[in-house]
Design a protein that fits this description.
Length: 293
């Protein structure tokens, strides 16, 4: 394999991995649009949902049936978190909200270890076999998870663009007061938004688990990369979040292979976060919010 083939392999692998970051970044954006807050527990919620999928598969359910059940359970978990916790602290001091998010992170992390154990577990991939001419450049699982994550993005785009419920959720996130006056049940829209974000995170967790193995710490680094992707694409742009995640995935692979090595890839993501906040805080595709005073 010559130098160009190695470079192309790094790029294709970065695109596939970046689609995972983009999916979790999309979940972060969905929460941010409704609450103007970053859910630091998003990765741990995705990890916990992935453990549920692992348990269902171990119990004998076919992979895709277990995946669908997990998405439904994750949606219910996200909705319950918003209904029982987030709604009660909305409008509170920012530091209190951040403390609650960190508390949720620790709760889901501890629950996963207490219920499922802390040992590394293998998570099955639904994508197996080889594709002639492509397998030496990108694995079948990487290609499959790229397709799944792009399909999730397409479904969400169609949902928010062409359905009444999706339009109502967008309106509630953009202008809650006006939406309430128009008859939209804004609290319900926020609950559904949290549920949807949790479901998207569950998909990301199930796609990344066959690569990283399953354990309570599996989503820690993924969340940082996803946060960098969300900031780069713009916290107000769902499509930008996916693009930002893919760009971060490509940069991670290229920099790790040719510039900084594997050990410094995570610090590089933190540097990217700082640079974006300093230079382009609204992100590439995000809208700049101007308040009149």
């Amino acid at each position: 394999m010559d130098a160009f083939d190695i470079f192309l392999r790094q790029v294709l692998g970065g695109i596939a991995t970046g689609s995972i970051y983009g999916s979790l970044a999309l979940a972060l954006v969905m929460i941010y649009q409704s609450t103007q807050k970053i859910n630091f527990a998003q990765g741990e919620m995705a990890m916990f949902s992935t453990y549920i999928a692992w348990w269902l598969i171990a119990a004998g359910l076919p992979y895709w049936l277990a995946a669908l059940a997990t998405v439904a359970i994750a949606l219910a978990i996200g909705a319950l978190v918003e209904l029982l916790v987030i709604r009660r602290i909305s409008g509170g001091p920012p530091l209190s909200v951040i403390a609650v998010f960190i508390g949720l992170l620790l709760i889901f992390h501890s629950l996963a270890g207490a219920i499922f154990g802390n040992a590394l577990q293998q998570f099955p991939s639904p994508f197996k076999g080889e594709i002639a001419g492509l397998s030496r450049m990108i694995s079948v699982h990487s290609l499959g998870m790229l397709g799944v994550n792009l399909a999730v993005l397409l479904v969400l785009f169609l949902f928010f663009r062409y359905t009444r419920l999706g339009l109502a959720m967008r309106a509630a996130a953009f202008n809650p007061a006006s939406s309430q006056l128009s008859g939209i049940p804004v609290p319900l829209m926020f609950t559904l938004g949290w549920g949807g974000a949790s479901a998207v995170g569950a998909v990301a967790g199930m796609m990344v688990a066959p690569i990283t193995y399953l354990d309570p710490d599996m989503m820690g680094g993924v969340l940082i990369y996803s946060f960098a992707g969300a900031l780069l694409g713009g916290l107000t742009s769902p499509g930008g979040a996916m693009v930002g995640g893919i760009v971060v995935g490509i940069l991670e692979n290229i920099l790790g292979a040719y510039v900084i090595g594997t050990e410094l890839k995570l610090p590089a993501a933190l540097v990217l976060i700082i640079l974006v906040l300093l230079v382009w805080p609204s992100g590439v595709f995000g809208r700049r919010i101007v308040s009149r005073v």
